[in-house]
């Protein structure tokens, strides 16, 4: 049983928590269906549901596994999923904008707490986003889950961040937009979870410790 203590550490998710792309994943997926010439037969919710089930070495490999799994689940031709994976265009990682309160929350909390980043995504891509946001040096520890490392909600990314920051789960919070990966992973390990829903976030899942509308509200929790 995890004992809750006075927080010393705040962990952040990156995508759709601290920043977002100009185009949404839903937009890019719809464009891929259009390029392939197939009527859409799955959406963002299906992709979110499948992401924790796969481990991939690249973004294309991830899409092939996720899209292929959904296609087989729905009795569709897996080759169509491969075509969709190839037709999907990844956004420029540097073409991101901060979400409301992101910079302010990181700046304010960084003066008093140890800050960590726990994100599903390759180091090079995620670092490009951080640099574009001028957050490259904002975190005391960063964990990039994927490839050989299981992605959130697996415990390993959280455990690595906590170890690097010499923090116990009971003295840490994790802030993210995903109930299925951020909140579920934090809750399972005994961290306080702070859910800041994004427009693309699924609304069904585990119950977070706290829910806030924007990151402007985060410092007030502490």
From TrEMBL:
<dbReference type="InterPro" id="IPR036412">
    <property type="entry name" value="HAD-like_sf"/>
</dbReference>
<dbReference type="InterPro" id="IPR023214">
    <property type="entry name" value="HAD_sf"/>
</dbReference>
<dbReference type="InterPro" id="IPR051400">
    <property type="entry name" value="HAD-like_hydrolase"/>
</dbReference>
<dbReference type="InterPro" id="IPR006439">
    <property type="entry name" value="HAD-SF_hydro_IA"/>
</dbReference>
<dbReference type="GO" id="GO:0046872">
    <property type="term" value="F:metal ion binding"/>
</dbReference>
<dbReference type="Pfam" id="PF00702">
    <property type="entry name" value="Hydrolase"/>
</dbReference>
<comment type="similarity">
    <text>Belongs to the HAD-like hydrolase superfamily.</text>
</comment>
<keyword id="KW-0479">Metal-binding</keyword>
<keyword id="KW-0378">Hydrolase</keyword>
<keyword id="KW-0460">Magnesium</keyword>
<dbReference type="GO" id="GO:0044281">
    <property type="term" value="P:small molecule metabolic process"/>
</dbReference>
<protein>
    <submittedName>
        <fullName>HAD family hydrolase</fullName>
        <ecNumber>3.1.3.-</ecNumber>
    </submittedName>
</protein>
<dbReference type="GO" id="GO:0016787">
    <property type="term" value="F:hydrolase activity"/>
</dbReference>
């Amino acid at each position: 049983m995890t004992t809750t203590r006075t927080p010393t550490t705040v962990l952040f998710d990156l995508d759709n928590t601290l920043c977002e792309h100009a185009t949404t994943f839903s937009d890019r997926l719809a464009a891929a269906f259009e390029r392939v010439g197939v009527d859409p037969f799955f959406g963002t919710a299906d992709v979110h549901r499948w992401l924790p089930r796969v481990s991939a070495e690249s973004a294309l490999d991830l899409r092939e596994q996720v899209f292929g799994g959904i296609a087989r689940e729905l009795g569709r031709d897996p080759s169509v999923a491969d075509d969709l994976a190839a037709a999907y265009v990844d956004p420029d990682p540097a073409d991101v904008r901060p979400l409301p309160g992101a910079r302010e929350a990181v700046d304010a909390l960084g003066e008093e707490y140890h800050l960590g980043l726990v994100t599903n995504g390759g180091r090079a891509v995620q670092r490009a986003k951080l640099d574009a946001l001028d957050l490259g040096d904002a975190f005391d520890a960063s964990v990039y889950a994927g490839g050989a490392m299981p992605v959130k909600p697996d415990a390993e990314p959280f455990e690595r961040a906590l170890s690097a920051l010499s923090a116990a789960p009971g003295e840490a919070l994790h802030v993210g937009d995903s109930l299925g990966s951020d909140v579920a992973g934090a809750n399972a390990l005994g961290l306080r979870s702070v859910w800041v829903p994004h427009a693309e976030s699924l609304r069904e899942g585990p119950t977070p410790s706290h829910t806030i509308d924007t990151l402007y509200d985060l410092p007030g929790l502490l």
